[in-house]
Amino acid sequence: MKILKRFGLAQRILLGWMAQTILIIGLFSVAMHESTELMEDNLVSDILKDELSILVSEIEAGEDVALPNSMQFYGNAPQLKPIPEQYTLVPDGYQEIVNSRDFAFLYKITVNGHSYVLIRDQYDFERSEQIFKILIAGCATLIFLFCLGFGYWWIRKKIMAPIESLSNEVRQMAESQQYRSLASEITDDEIGELAKICDRALKRFHEALSREKLFTSDISHELRTPLTVIETTAELMQLYPLTDKQNEQVGKILKAAKSIEELLAVFLQLARGDDFQKSSNTDRVYDVIGEIADNLKKTAEAKKLRLSVQSAATCPGHYSPVLLSTVVNNLVKNAILYTESGEVIVRELADGFEVIDTGIGIPKEMHDKVFMPKVRATNKAPGSGMGLSIAKRICDRCGWKLQLLDSETGTHFRVCLVIEEPILYADQRGKAF
C-alpha cells in the first residue's frame, strides 16, 4: 500500500485496470491451454484405442496389417515385432511419451494373454500445439496493448480530465485569493458532487476571509487615532521643561506608541497575506533580546524567577526590531507565564537565539499542535494560546525557523534567523521577501 501511495490517482487506476486485464488474459490463456491438452488427450486416446482394436482384430483374423509411416505396431504375438524393452513395463491404456529420444503417443492393451502396443509419432501434433501457443501469446499481447492504450485514453479523457479541470480552477482561486464560480462542467456523479462541495467551501472560506480582512483593517484604522493622540501629547510634553526621569518616561511612551503602530501594521499584513515591509530601523539580536528582557524583568521578579540574557556566539546581521522583538517577547512571556520556579534563559546563538525555562513543559504529543492558534499545552494552562501562533506566523513569513526542541525539564525554543537556503512556505510561493 505504501508503494501505491507514491503514484498519482490516474496511475493507480491504470495499474488496477492493467492488473485486472493481466489476470483475465492469464486465466483465459491457461484455460485455453488446459482445454487443448484435455481435448488432445481424449481425442488421441480414442483414436489410438480404436485403431489398436482394429489392428488386433486383423492380427487374430490372420490378415496383413498395413500402417502409415507415423505409426508403429508391436506385440508379443509371433507375427509381430517384439515390444521394445522400454515399453514392456508400461501399463495398459493411453500414455504420452516425452523424453530426449521419443515424442510419441502410446496405447497398450492386453488381449487373450498377448500385449499389443501402438505408437504414433506426435511431431505434427507438437508443431500444431506450438503454433497454437504462439497464437494464444500473440493474441494475449495484442489484447494487453489494446487495453493499455484504451485504458490510458479513457482514464485521461473521461476520468481525470474533469478532476484536473477542477483542481486547476481551485488552485487558480487559491493563488489569486479571489472567489469565482467554478467554470468546469459539473457532471452528475461523484466528481460533480466533489465540485459542488469545493465550490461551497471556497465560497464560505472567501467570505470569511473577506470579513476578517475588513475587520482587521477597521481595527487597525480605528486604533491609529488614539495612538496619534498619545504620540502628539507625548511630543508636546517634551516641549516643556522636564526632569530626567520624566523625559525617560515620556520617551518610553513615544517608543511604545511607535511599537504598537508598527505591530498593527505587522498584524494587518499577516491577516492580508501581504509582504512584510522592510523596516528602516534594524537592531542586532543581542540588543533586541536584551531590551525585551529589561521590559519583562519586573514580571519575572514578581514570580521570583531569574531572567538572564546570555550570548554563546554573535548572530550576524541586523533585523527589524518590531518583528524580532514580537517573536522574542511572545516566547519569553510564555516562558515566564508557564514557569513557577527556577529561571528563564534567553541566549544568543551563532544563527539566532533560544529561550529555555524550567516550567511545566509541553507534552510531546502536543509538539505539532502547540503553534496552532488558541492551542495551549494543557486545558488548565493560562493565556489565550495565541502567542506561539503569532511568533510562528512571523517566523514563517520572514523565512526564519522556529523549533520546539525536546527537553527533560521545562521547554526549549530555538529560532534560526540565519538559514543557508530560504524556507518556502505555502503562503509564500510566488512572493518575494
TrEMBL record:
Q: Where in the cell is it found?
A: Membrane
Identify the SMART domains for this entry: HATPase_c (SM00387), HisKA (SM00388)
- Matches recorded under SUPFAM superfamilies: ATPase domain of HSP90 chaperone/DNA topoisomerase II/histidine kinase, Homodimeric domain of signal transducing histidine kinase
Q: Please list the GO terms describing molecular function.
A: kinase activity
State its Enzyme Commission number(s): 2.7.13.3
Nucleotide-binding as a keyword of this entry, yes or no, is no
Q: Which keywords are on file for this protein? A: Kinase, Membrane, Phosphoprotein, Transferase, Transmembrane, Transmembrane helix, Two-component regulatory system
Q: Which residues form the Histidine kinase domain?
A: 218-421
Highest taxon, organism lineage:
Bacteria
Q: Which residues cross the membrane?
A: 12-32, 131-155
As its record notes, the protein acts as a catalyst of: ATP + protein L-histidine = ADP + protein N-phospho-L-histidine
Give all residue intervals belonging to the HAMP domain.
Answer: 157-210
Q: Which residues form a coiled coil?
A: none
Task: Tell me which InterPro entries the record gives.
Answer: HAMP_dom, HATPase_C_sf, HATPase_dom, His_kinase_dom, HisK_dim/P_dom, HisK_dim/P_sf, TCS_sensor_his_kinase
What is this protein's name?
A: histidine kinase
Question: What is the source species?
Answer: Parasutterella secunda
